Every structure is written in structure tokens, then in C-alpha cells.
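Researcher: Next sequence.
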Amino acid sequence: MPDSSLFKYLTASSIVTATCVLGLLYFGRDVLEPLALASILSLVLAPLIRTLRRVGLPQLPATLLSVLLAGTCVVGIGTILAFQLVAVTRDLPQYRAAIKSKVEKVREITERPFARLEAELSAVTPQFSPPPAPPVTVKRGTLTTPANQPLPVEVRAPRPTTRDALARLLSLVLGPIGEAGLVLVLLVFILLEHESLRDRAIRLAGQAEISRTVRALADATRGVSRFFLSQFIVNLTFGALIGAVLWAFGVPHALLWGALSGLMRFVPYLGIMAAGAMIAVFVAAIDPGWTMALSCLAVFVALELMVANVIEPKVYGHSSGLSPLAVIVSALFWGALWGPIGLLLSTPLTLCLVVAGRHVRALEPVTILLGEVPNVTTSQRFYQRVLSGDRHAIVEDARRYIQRHGFARYCDQVLLPGLVLAVAEQRGNQIDATQAENIRATIAGVATTLSPGYGAQGRNRRRQRVSLLDANVGAHLRKMREDKLGRWQGSLDVPSRSVVLCAGLGTERDDLLTELLVRALREVGIDARSIVIGAEQESPGPDSANLISTVFITYPVEATLEQWREATQDLHARLPNVLLVTIRLPFGEASVGQSLVEEHVDMVLRSFEESLAFVAPERGAQQAA
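Model: Next structure:
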């Protein structure tokens, strides 16, 4: 696992640099806000421009036509919403009485318990107050006032003139219009200079970083464009559904509220809450009772929960690349820096930083902290949970994994690589005896729970202390299986060449590997059993050799190479008609070269999944699919 500790980035120079960047973002927001907004909009319009270029339009007409289409849509939607808002404003006076009545009812409901509590507390609490002092008055001309009371003074602002009112109105209107015009000009020039800007960025990165820079720019462009397209489709559908529901309930101006709901969803989390509150207040104002308001609010919340938790994860997929917590944190951060514009641009800006962190080492902490998927493999996550003893989370993740891919792939991709991490840290004396015991217990419990047919047995024995578990997890699992299936791990009255034998040398490593392989084979219906080579054990009979079709023997390591060679020679002599196979896993201890092993076995495989495909091709193909 590459070293990605955040502490290596906490140097004096990095802290000073980060502080300077934050200061630049805050004090330079007047310049950076329109530039960032124009850059994000250029990424949004980039797919449309590419489509028009494919049709045959040159760069300039395609850019101007794209901006014109986008501007027309924005102005058209804004005009329709403005007329709707004027109509709502015109109708508000007739709802004023209902609004006052509802407010009084809500206030009475909310204040009554506190007033009653205050009255009860006042009744049991003694009141002590000094007697009031007689007021001392003095005569000031013809006015008589208390001596310690100042004369009342009222300050009145001058009445605004028509010129002042017009100036204030123009400042309110021309401010947003001027900023929108600046963004539009920047957008056009950025789109026209798109290729030139990309070449300049590549040139600044240097000749040695061309491929990484091109990949980073492509990832950012593709990620932001795909995110906004997906978000636009989802929000448009959500707004249409809300408008249809409100129209069905008979709410006036349903089109306006549906459009506002869709638009407000572009603001992370806060926007949808504000839209729901406005709809609830408006419906409560037009309805004498509370039934319609509560019904509309319930439908609104239900649709939002369904869209946020069911629709968006499937539509977005990994298009955002941000974790849910990162979306909230980015909204708070950019909103505090740049206000409403920062809140609107928080997700795409953070997404660009996360994408850059995949290619720029200095921004790697941003990707680790805010990325949707942390830089941790499934095996590393498994080992971390094993160390923490979180067996429930391990089992739940494993069940979902096995349901899709099978137990054999789970061993290949998660369980065995995780155990390799444990072995490496144990050799480095980074694991104490208590942690090692917890690892053995967790591995045994997980393997027992996940194996078909052994879950109940494992649960019954969970609280029992088994001495074999302290030294050898594989032997413990084999003993549990023999207790359930019998001495020979199953009936001997089976068809000829239907049994697959998994053999090991009796070490802790071999016993665990053979036991996991047995359970992976049994999951797909193969009659797999295990033996310990060299151990004193009773023979099942002279005819038992005819029942075996294949023997899987563990791959040797340097320390047991000679013993392994003798074992293979003995197996060949006792089972001449049986295929002898070994599995060389692509991780673990330093193993023997494959050329030395191939002389003693019939085949060398590289995973548990290959072993399933070898002994049962049709079932192995199903597992791989």
C-alpha cells in the first residue's frame, strides 16, 4: 500500500502555501468568482460544442450557437418564472388572513407548553422584590419628568427623493446584470480559446508531464460535464413530478413551484429544504385546514428521499466522484468564501480538485479526504476491520460480495490478500499476541459463517474456547467440519472419481489454505475433502482411491520444499490415476520457482477460481460470470 499519510504533507511550507491560497480565494473573490463560473459553464457547454463541430460547423459558429441556445433557454425560463412570481405576488393579499390565522395557531401550539411550565414554576418559586421608590420629579420649563429619565429624542431619516429611489433600483438591477455580462464575455472567450488554454496548461506542466496533464484535463472535463448532465436530467424530472403532484392537489401556480423545486436542487442540500419550506408555507396559506399542506409536504419528502437515495446513485454512478459528506463540507467551505455563487459552484469546484488530486501529488490529500471511494483496496479494508474486531461489517460485506462473485473469488481478492497483510505485520513485530489471537478468532468466525452448511455450527461454538483455534485456524475449521460431516468428512458411498482431495503438510499456512479451498469447492457442489500429509490417520479402505479424481496440494515454500517433494512422490505412488494439481497464489511468502514445481505435479493453477473451473468447468464459468 503506498504511503498516503497526511502527516507528511503537514510541513511549514505547505501550511503557509495553503494559508496564502485561502487568502487569495477570499480577498480575490471579485475576480475569481466570474472566472470560475465561466470556466465551469464552459465545461458544461463543451459536449454541445463538440456535437456541433461533428455536424460540420466551425469553431466560432458552434461556440456562438451553443451560447445563444443556452442563453435563450435561461432567459425563457427566467421570464416564465418572473411572470409566475408576479401572479403569486398579486394573489398574496387574499391569503393574508389565512396566513395570520395559521401563524397564530402555530404560535399557540408551540408557546402553550412553555407558558404553562413557566406559570407552574412561578407558582412554586418565591418572589422577592424591593418596594418601589417614589419617583422624584423636576420641572424643566413646562414639562415634568422623573429626574433620572432622559428626554425622549426621535431621529428621523430624510424622505428619499425620486432620484435616490431610481439610483438604488438601478444599482440593484445593474449589479447582477453587469456580473452576468462579464461571465458571458469570459465564457465566450474561454470557449473560443479552449484548445489554446489546454496547450498552455500542458506547456506549464512541462514536457515530462504531458500525458498526466492531458489525462487530468480530460478527467475533469468529462467528470464535470457528465455530472451536470446527470444532475440536469434528475432535477428536471424531479421538478416535473412536483409540479404534477401539486397540480393534482389543486395548488395554484403548480408550474412555478415545480420549476423552483428543480432549480433549487442545484444548491446542495440547502436548496431542496428551502423549496420544501416555501411550498409548505404557500399551501398552508391557501388551504383553510392542514390536510393539503401536510399531504403535499409528505409527498415532497417522499419523492426527495426516493430521488436522493435510489435514483441519484444509479443515474450518477461515479460521475460526481465525491462522498456525501464531501458535498456538505464543500458547500460550507465555498459558501463561506464566495457566498451564494460559491454554494452553487461548490460541487463542480471540489470535483475538479478531487480529479486533480489523482494526478497532482500536492493535491492527493484532497482526493483521499473528499473522494467517493478512498484509496483503500477491499483486502486492506478487510484487514483494518479484522484488527478492529468489526466482524459484523466483515460478514455483511462478504455476503454481498459472495452473492455476486462466489466464495472462491472472495478468497482470491479479499480474504487471502488481507491475511498476507497480517502475516507481513506479524513478521515485523507490529502485531502483539492479543491482536494475533483476535485475528485468528475473527478469521475462523468469518469463514465459518460464510461457508454453506456450517453457519449454525459456527454460531453454537462461538462462545466456546477451542484450543486448536489458538494455534491453527485451519485445523480448527477442519475439526468443526469433521464433527458435522463425520470422520471421513462425508459418506464413502459415492460415485467413482467424484471426490476432490485437498492436501497440505500440516503447517498453519497449509491447513488454512486447504480448508478454504475445500469450502470454496463445496459451495458449488463439489465433494471436496482435506487431509494432512504425514499425519497418523486411519485409512478409509483400499477402495477409497477409486473415489478420488483430483488432488490439490498446497504450493511449497523454501522451508518445506524437500518435505513437499516427498509428499508429491508418495501421492503419485499411492494414487497413480489421479491428477495432482497445485495453486500458486500471486502473493504471500517467498515461494519456490514454478519450474521446480512443475516437475512434480500435473498442473499449476494461480487462483481458487481457476481450481473451480478446472474440476467443474460449467460451474466455474457460472462463478466467473
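Model: Strands lie at 137-140, 143-146, 499-504, 527-532, 548-554, 579-583, 603-605. The longest strand covers residues 548-554.
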